[in-house]
Amino acid sequence: MRPVAQTDDDRRRTTRDRATATLIGMTTTTSTPGLDARTRAPVADPPLTEIPDGLRGTGLPGGPPAAIDVRGLTKRYGRRTVVRNLDVTVPTGVVAGFVGPNGAGKTTTLRMLLGLVRPSEGSGTILGEPLGEPARYLPRVGALIESPALYPTLSGRRNLASLAVLAGQDPAGVDAILDEVGLAGRGDDAFRTYSLGMKQRLAIGAALLSDPDLLILDEPTNGLDPSGIRQMRALVRSLADGEREAGANGRPRTVLVSSHLLSEVEQICDWIIVVEQGRLAYQGPTDGLMASTTSRVELRPEHADSLGMLADLVAGFGLPVDRAGDRLLVELDHTAPAAVPGPDGPDGPDGPDGPDGPDAVLAGLNRAALARGITLVEITRQRTSLEDRYQGLVESTRETARSTGTSSMSTSTSTGGEAR
Ligand SMILES: Nc1ncnc2c1ncn2[C@@H]1O[C@H](COP(=O)(O)OP(=O)(O)OP(=O)(O)O)[C@@H](O)[C@H]1O
């Protein structure tokens, strides 16, 4: 771990390495054992921010190391901490979405992973190589960070062929790449005549020239219209599980794609990482994000004058409650240990149907109400949407940062382990 402020050297490195990571072809020499992480990634309810044991670090039995496994990644600019103690693990072979609002630290994190910005702190591995030695892994990484730097007057094909030659690669593969990014029919047209979506897809083609094992795409849907976004989604998904998986080299490709909108990536991602103010808010299987959702319940007693007593009862269960007209709104969060005393206690099973799960909490509430002479005539469950869940995570992470005085706007002298 080395505390480093950004220096001129850093900035020179950034410019030089941006070209390297984004455009220069990379030779793959190492063979990695094949793995279909889509089938191995567990989809059962992981707790927030926790990585299932089998996916942590090099823990895939018989499989390759995680494509990305970094710990305590931190970036400070002067006294301002923009990425804070971030742990990121991306299993090999998945499409991982890196999601967070504007300014959450996504680009800074991706730049650190690509060796374009030097981390203030942090360690770990990328494709099994040390984070601190990007030259060892960059040859197997393709990236699209910011706008593509391609020649406007050259055709798409000539652009890719020139980049391949510059990187010392055989330009023979260019046609296959144009096909892969959906530009086979426009390969002879000048780059400047392309739509924004086509330009982005050609830039991804440039990042594919080296047949990378890890592809990092920073907001590739930025500025695209809905149809461009759909095409980009399909392309990104196909890059991980298209022909390559069964292809000549047999190595799975991992894709890390950032976006500020969960809705843009959740359909194509196996794995989601949510960041806010440089902090990790969630990482795990996409299904896990929804499984950890909070559900809200509306309770309506037979007689409105028993609302006060019912509210006290709900509060006694440790559940947040609001009054709305003739009913109560109760938050049931099945990631939190329920306050209802159960046979397993607060550490007991807390799945939706478990003895500490929301169904059991509701049943307990209902019984307790009846025991006090309150008859519930309506119990309505409302599940939050994935987008609501994402917003909730972002807001609670922001709130944690505010309450601990460690928002990205605050200065920091301590970088020790913090609650996420
Ligand atoms: N070179 C720099 N010097 C100082 N602050 C910086 C620098 N680069 C980024 N930041 C700050 O770091 C924070 C995170 O920026 P970053 O670009 O990583 O966020 P982001 O999540 O990618 O945002 P967006 O979705 O808007 O691109 C921002 O507040 C930004 O102003």
Automatic annotation (TrEMBL):
The keyword Nucleotide-binding applies. Residues 403-420 have a biased composition (Low complexity). GO terms for molecular function: ATP binding; ATP hydrolysis activity. Residues 28-66, 336-361, 385-420 are annotated as: Disordered. Keywords: ATP-binding, Nucleotide-binding, Transport. InterPro entries: AAA+_ATPase, ABC_transporter-like_ATP-bd, ABC_transporter-like_CS, P-loop_NTPase. Residues 68-302 form the ABC transporter domain. Residues 385-401 have a biased composition (Basic and acidic residues). The keyword 4Fe-4S does not apply. Belongs to the ABC transporter superfamily. This is ABC transporter ATP-binding protein. It comes from Parafrankia soli.
